[in-house]
Design a protein that fits this description.
It contains four helices and 19 strands. It is α+β, with helices and mostly antiparallel strands. The protein has two domains: 113 residues, no CATH class; 131 residues, no CATH class. Strands 15-16-6-5-14-17 form a six-stranded antiparallel beta sheet, with no helix packed on it. It has a three-stranded antiparallel beta sheet with strand order 11-12-13, with no helix packed on it. Strands 1-2 form a two-stranded antiparallel ribbon.
């Protein structure tokens, strides 16, 4: 591959990945507790690495273009706005922290607070997975002995009460390093570095009857997407121009021979 085309193609590929990331963010603008992803570029010259004595000789003698553009994504955990729902089982976290959920793949973490109570009177997610308290699964008896409806309340520190009696306290955790988490799908996260997990017992603010919105700003995402599309189109034009120039050179050399 032509070195010029190679360099341009790596740039176009990075822009394509960035476009996919932005499209996913916009698709989740109304998803409860969604955290947007951001990307970063890193362009570097491979010639210095190839001269490194620790690199195998056959790699140092390679004729491949000595350029590469690396693209990485990371999650922006900034808080989204709160939306009032009035449901007693909708919970929102202000500031840092994650709810703990027992999933088939083990304990995972989420900012989604659109919980409900299943037929066994256990507080669960929309997928039916138990929300965890300090004592494990949270059992909530909603009907009293007279057949009435019990009052379920959650305080700011995560304490759950039914008719004034404490049932449990939500298990809220945080991570000392943001990269210790990775997305597991459906707004859940798994711990890449469990040692970075810490229990939050103070400074919590759980708001009952509210949900946290996505932290995606539609206008800024659309503006950024337009910018990325224009950049991607510029790379495409460069590739076509280089290809046309190479074709003319080959034709001219053939005629002069």
């Amino acid at each position: 591959m032509s070195g010029s085309i190679y360099m341009t193609a790596t740039g176009a590929l990075a822009y394509e990945k960035r476009l996919q990331l932005l499209a996913n963010n916009l698709a989740n603008v109304d998803t409860v507790g969604f955290k947007k992803d951001r990307g970063r570029f890193r362009a570097f010259d491979l010639s210095e690495a190839m001269n490194n004595q620790n690199v195998p000789v056959k790699w140092r003698q390679s004729q491949a273009p000595n350029f590469w553009m690396e693209y990485r994504s990371y999650t922006d955990f900034s808080a989204g706005g709160l939306k009032q729902t009035g449901s007693p089982f909708d919970l929102a976290l202000s500031g840092s922290g994650f709810f703990c959920v027992q999933t088939p793949a083990g304990v995972q973490y989420t900012r989604r607070g659109d919980f409900t109570v299943n037929a066994d009177e256990v507080l669960v997610t929309q997928e039916g997975w138990p929300v965890l308290g300090h004592s494990g699964e949270i059992q909530i008896k909603l009907s009293d002995s007279s057949g009435g409806r019990s009052q379920f309340l959650v305080s700011e520190d995560g304490t759950l009460t039914v008719d004034g009696s404490q049932v449990d306290r939500l298990r809220i955790v945080d991570f000392t390093q943001s990269h210790a988490l990775e997305k597991a799908g459906h707004n859940y996260y798994r711990a890449r570095q469990p040692e970075a997990l810490e229990e939050l017992d103070e400074g919590l603010k759980v708001t009952q009857g509210f949900l946290e919105r996505s932290n995606v700003d539609t206008i800024s995402m659309m503006t950024e997407m337009i910018e990325v599309l224009r950049g991607y189109e510029s790379y495409q034009k460069m590739i076509r121009s280089i290809d046309d120039m190479n074709a003319r050179l080959i034709n001219d050399v053939g005629r002069s021979a």
